[in-house]
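Researcher: Before we compare anything, I want clean individual predictions. No alignment, no superposition, just each chain on its own. First chain goes here; please echo the sequence and then give the structure tokens.
Model: Echoing the first chain and its structure:
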Amino acid sequence: EVTEKLEEVVMIWIKQIRQVLVESEQIRREADDVGPSAELEHWKSRMSSFNSLLDEIKSSRVKKIISILQAARSKTLKQWKELDGRVTIAANEAKDNVRYLYILDKFFGPLANASPVMMEHIPSLMSTVFMIYCTSPYYNTSEHMTSLFLKITNQMINTCKTYLCEG
């Protein structure tokens, strides 16, 4: 009877974690002119969410329940372990992406505040993006790179618009 109650609790957790994972994998809706700093903010927020979830999963309360279910050879543990692994991967991805995007962050300010003659920043920026593409185990997908380049381009366009309107 205790095992059944604990399995019910774990199934609720599994449902909640699946919902978090589904929401995190949905396509982001962003304004057309959002700049590259938004990419860093997105991954920082995602890192915070998944780290909090990992902290909860690794809490002593959860560990005790899981160990009781292991002793009872509960079938819910297979689903639990699969989701635990997915949360760990998502947390690692977010942490890694934040680390790499912080490297790019030093270019975002000058890109936003420069005059349209921002060419001096472009070679270093592109070298850094290329380095991230070559070395990041998570951020080197077409989807992530396209999103980043779109935001960098948006920032360049916004900088030019501001320059034209002020000039």
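Researcher: Okay. Second chain, same rules.
Model: Second chain and its structure:
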Amino acid sequence: YDRLIAICWPLRYSTINTNLRMLLIIAGIWSLVILLEIFPVIFAARLPYCSSREVQSCCCEHGPVYKLACTDISYNRQLAAAKTLTALLGPLTFIIFTYVIVVVAVTRIASISQRWKAFHTCLTHLLLVLLYYMPVILAYILGNLRLVQNVDLFTAILTVSVTLPQMLNPIIY
């Protein structure tokens, strides 16, 4: 969003990206995240757990918790898939859509040096997006297709996928 405004409307940037607008965007995103997480927690809390209550994950996520239930978990499995796809593909779709608009706007710039400057502005962000989404999507695919049977290996993949991009963020920028 920030790159879109900076490149497509540079002279109006400060009037579009006001503190109030940023606060509303942040509040909206936090509200969406809370709503995405509240329903799985409620549904997982209602399940009966008969066997082990040891969660086989580095964090207490919905999937590893509801798999411990001793009843039909098909609804929880569908809810987890929908939540994961929404949380992954929603922002990724928005990022791709905004970058398509940015690329169209940049190609209209006459000066090659200005085009390069605009692309360079976006390049670091795109690198971080790829560093985040590739391992997360890979972990999601490996987990759903049951290609990784070792719980410790899957936990390591998930841990790397959520920590590595944040660690590289200061280095890349």
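Researcher: What stands out in the second chain?
Model: The chain has two domains: 1-86, 109-172. Additionally, The mean pLDDT is 82.
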